[in-house]
Structure formats: C-alpha cells, structure tokens
User: Which sequence fits this backbone?
C-alpha cells in the first residue's frame, strides 16, 4: 500500500534526482541474481542527503502514526533498513534492533541484534522490496522471538504480485513511500525517459511478474 499519492510522486522524483534509482532502458544493469534490468536501485544514497533522509524519516513516522501501530520497538532489516530504522527509532524515542539475513556463524550466533522482548509491538523498516522473501524472513525471525509485528515500511517496492501475496499470507501490512509505477510515471513526466523507454520499462515489469 502506498502511504500517500503526493508523497509517492515526490519520493520518486527525489530518488531519480540523486540517482538512488537509475533507469537505463537501452544499457541494462545486471542484478546479483543475473537478471538484466533497465532499473537499478540503491536507496542507501539517500543517507548522503540531509533533506532527503529527513523527508523519508518524517514520512515513515507519519505512516506509523496514521496506521496507529503504536510500536514499542523499531527494527531494521540488514543492511539497507538499518540506518533508516535507526533514524526512525531516534525520532520516536524508541529502542532499535536489526535482523540479519541469517544467523551468525560465530559468537552468540544471533540473527536479531539488539534487545528484543517477547510481546513487544514491532515495526520493521526496509529500504527496498522486490519479491519480499528476505524482508519476510525478518518478520518470521521477530515472530519467533515473540514479537507482535504490526507492519513494515519501505522506501520503494517493485509492487510485484508475489510480494503482495506473501505479505498478505504473513499477515504483515506493508506500506511504502513509492513504487515502480509511480517512479516510471514521474520519470516520464520530468522527461527523464521517453515514451519508447516507458514501453521497455513496462515490459520489464511484466517479465518480472512472470518469472
């Protein structure tokens, strides 16, 4: 679910402006999965811009308040959700923890870092949602620790059907500041891409859905 339409368009424009999201329909990027993609997303770039990271933090906080989640704990998903989550926790005066993709193989072998208590209401912060599998791994880890996961916030989502179904099955509300469709529409509006590029980007989304 998009937080607010105007925020979605503004977020999309900001991500394009600082090249946190890069669109290159004719010179494709290679994702870690090997997929050839016309889009590359690195929302960690937002942390280098005070005004933009403040905008993201404030809208995350507003989304938490609007949804009446009343968290007792903010949790970041490693790695991109850690700094964003810490900023939100600081703003709300709440404890912070983060979840690794898997347990450490040494020391205490923790997957969750930080103090987490059974029964705590937790809100999870992510930077990017694709299929949702790694993000929902954090949800499972927190539920196994006894937390009540009230929802997850993310800057950007590809808005894939598989992710929407997975979050619904996990009974975890997902709220994002913007998504793929808002992003490419804003890119066309500000002449970042052409109509021809737009067709390529839409076709790529269709191929992602069918994988």
Assistant:
């Amino acid at each position: 679910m998009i937080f607010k339409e105007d925020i979605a368009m503004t977020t999309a424009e900001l991500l394009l402006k600082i090249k946190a999201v890069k669109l290159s329909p004719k010179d494709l990027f290679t994702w870690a999965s090997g997929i050839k993609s016309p889009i590359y997303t690195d929302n960690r770039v937002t942390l280098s811009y005070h005004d933009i990271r403040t905008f993201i933090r404030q809208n995350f906080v507003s989304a938490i308040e609007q949804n009446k989640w009343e968290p007792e704990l903010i949790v970041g998903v490693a790695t991109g959700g850690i700094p964003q989550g810490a900023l939100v926790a600081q703003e709300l005066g709440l404890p912070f923890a983060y979840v690794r993709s898997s347990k450490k193989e040494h020391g205490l072998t923790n997957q969750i870092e930080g103090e987490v208590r059974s029964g705590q209401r937790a809100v999870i912060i992510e930077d990017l949602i694709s299929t949702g599998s790694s993000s929902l791994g954090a949800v499972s880890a927190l539920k196994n620790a006894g937390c009540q996961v009230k929802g997850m916030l993310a800057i950007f989502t590809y808005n894939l059907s598989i992710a929407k179904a997975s979050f619904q099955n996990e009974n975890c509300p997902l709220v994002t500041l913007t998504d793929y469709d808002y992003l490419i529409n804003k890119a066309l509006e500000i002449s970042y891409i052409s109509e021809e590029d737009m067709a390529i980007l839409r076709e790529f989304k269709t191929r992602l859905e069918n994988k």
Q: What stands out?
A: The radius of gyration is 17 Å. The chain has a mean pLDDT of 94. Residues 50-66 form the longest helix (17 residues). Helices lie at 5-17, 50-66, 81-92, 133-144, 161-169, 180-189, 195-209.
